[in-house]
């Protein structure tokens, strides 16, 4: 049976120098997004230029390395105004003896007073929940059931071409006479490139030398189309002028009938019973709305560039925490066991934990599929352990359990016995919003 990754030190005092050397490789533990000190890793530090060059390895077509001036995304503890670290760490090394991380690094040491305060505060923010069970029921059991969270973020750039059209009147155009048309992956977008691992960002830019003048497809270059109001029964492309329409006031009679049996001359059509077509004034043609009567369209190619992060998330929880939704663990603050970035991440290696090696491999194996029109810029692989404390409270023959999750001590409680509206109160929706 495998020894737990984070176990308390039962051997008493250890050699101070040896422990200090091993713990030094975990200086980044507990600081989300921090850089792993490469001096203690098996491998050399990789520069940003090397990572960008890795993105240029040809797949189906070239990917120029000079396109991107990527910045490493800021750690959560940094503000956006602070400069971002640009070191991307080699992620293939050994992470040392993880058992040397003290159990206190992830264990939540809570006494009964703190547990009740957290529960009472959580219940106090819920409408129609009574605090009596939280205040008076006996704490029957407190159990540590830490959860491992693995993520793989794949930052991609996707490009596609759309065609824009607008009426052409006159003037010069930026066509192939001014130079060769650039391919979509030849566009230099360094000035638009965002911070790595941003959830989504889109930009559009015109492709140089892609403009052209085309014949309007709606009017075939004539600048006008046949009026469908007075020439609707003719074959396409044919029309007749001076087509008249029945007067809607007298229905073509030229006279207006009255209730006393008399008739008067229709003033709308002046007694003729017919009127010119209101759409084209009986010309038979109307101006083309697509080219605005010019007969030509100016077409250009526009590149649509989307940067987005594809995320793969996986949770490994014990049976004691299996009832908690995975999203709760992903939101919680934990202790990072590894945080690596590379053009393509490979599974992390822990010298003493077959479970973590397998867990990391499973996360990597579930990598999100990349669209055909996209390129991978960088990946980030994180494995964290989230401290979870399960508390069981009992009163006579009744009991309920709740969880204290993460370093932020978030309370998750599903079946609380002190509810008075049975989940039907509309205030729950108000609290969620």
Structural class: alpha+beta
| SSE sequence, one letter per element | HHHHEEEEEEEEEEEHEHEEEEH
Number of helices: 7
Large-scale geometry = elongated
Strand content: 25-35%
**What fraction, in percent, of the residue positions are helical?**
10-25%
Q: What oligomeric assembly is this protein in?
A: single chain
| Largest sheet report | 6 strands, antiparallel
Global mean pLDDT: 74
| Rounded Rg | 36 Å
Distance between the termini: 46 Å
Low-confidence spans? 1-48, 50-105
Number of strands: 16
Helix/strand layout:
Blueprint: H1 16-24, H2 48-54, H3 112-124, H4 132-136, E1 138-144, E2 147-167, E3 200-206, E4 212-215, E5 224-226, E6 244-246, E7 255-257, E8 263-265, E9 274-276, E10 285-287, E11 296-316, H5 326-331, E12 335-342, H6 354-365, E13 374-386, E14 388-395, E15 398-405, E16 410-412, H7 427-432
Could you explain the architecture of this structure?
- The strands form five sheets. Strands 2, 3, 4, 11, 12 and 13 form a six-stranded antiparallel sheet that branches. This protein has a four-stranded antiparallel sheet with strand order 1-14-15-16. A two-stranded antiparallel ribbon has the order 5-10.
- The protein has 433 residues and is of the alpha+beta class.
- Strand 15 and strand 16 form a beta hairpin.
- The N terminus is likely disordered.
